[in-house]
Write a structure and sequence with these properties.
Elements: H1 2-12, E1 16-18, H2 31-43, E2 48-51, E3 54-56, H3 71-81, E4 86-88, H4 90-96, E5 107-111, E6 116-120, E7 123-129, E8 138-142, E9 148-152, H5 154-163, H6 165-168, H7 173-183, H8 189-199, H9 202-214, H10 219-226, E10 236-237, E11 247-249, E12 254-256
Parallel strand pairs: 5-7, 10-12
Antiparallel strand pairs: 1-3, 2-3, 4-5, 6-7, 8-9, 11-12
Helix pairs in contact: 5-8, 8-9, 8-10, 9-10
Amino acid sequence: MEAQFFAYAQMRKMRTVHGGDLSDSLLRLTADQERKLLSRLARARLIARVRRGLYLVPPRLPLGGAWTPDESLAINTLIADRQGRYQICGPNAFSRYGYDEQVPNRIYAYNNRISGDRTVGTVNLTLIKVADERLGATEEQKTVDGETAVYSSRARTLLDAVYDWSRFGSLPRAYDWIRADLGARRVRPAELVRVTLRYGDVGAIRRIGALLEREGINERHLRKLAQQLRTPKNPIPWIPGRARRGKVDRRWGVVWNDHA
C-alpha cells in the first residue's frame, strides 16, 4: 500500500495530501485505511504531518528511509494552510544578519494566525501571533528547493531586538548591533526611525531615541521619535533587569543604568 501511495503521489506531483484525497483517488482507500496509512507513513518519517489531516509528501522516495521538509517548506505550508502571513524573526534573523554566531535549532516567526510551538517533520517552530499591522518590513530569500522564505528586514530585526528584548534576550547586545550597523552604513538612521515608529512601542521609541541621540544622529530624525512621546513620569531602565540607578534622560525617559 505504501508503494502504491508513493507511485500515485509522484504521478500526480502531489506535495501535500489532505484527509479524503485518497478515498477519491485510484487507490480507493476507505477513510479508516487512509488515516492508518498516513499515520504510519508519518511515524516512519516518510511523509511529514503539518497538522491533523494535512501531510507533506516528498517529491521522490526518501533516500535512507527517512525524509523531512526543509524549514521554508514547513513554515510556508503551515501558514498557507491558515491563509496567513509570517516573517522569520528573532534568533534566526540575528543569525542571518551576522549579529549572533549561534544558529538556532528552531524557527521563530511572527505571524497573524497561530500562537505556540509546532513541529512539522523534524522542523521545530515557535510561532508568535501578532496583529496584522505588526507584520511588515521584510525581505525574501529563495532556497535551493525553490521555496521563498520571508525574513524581517535588517532594520526591523534591530527594532525587534529592542522591542521584544524579553522574548529574545537581546538587550543590551542589540545596542552594539545598532551602533555597528549605523557606523558601517548597513542601516540608515531614517529607516530605523521609520520602522520604530511603525512597528515599535513607547519603550522601543524611548530606547532607540536615546541611543540615536547618544550616537549623534541628526536632530530631524530624533524629533520624529520625540513627537510620539509624552513627558514620561516613570523612566525605564536603559538595560532591563538592572537596578534603576543612574542619570535620568528627561527627553527620552530613560535611566542610564549601564554603569550601575
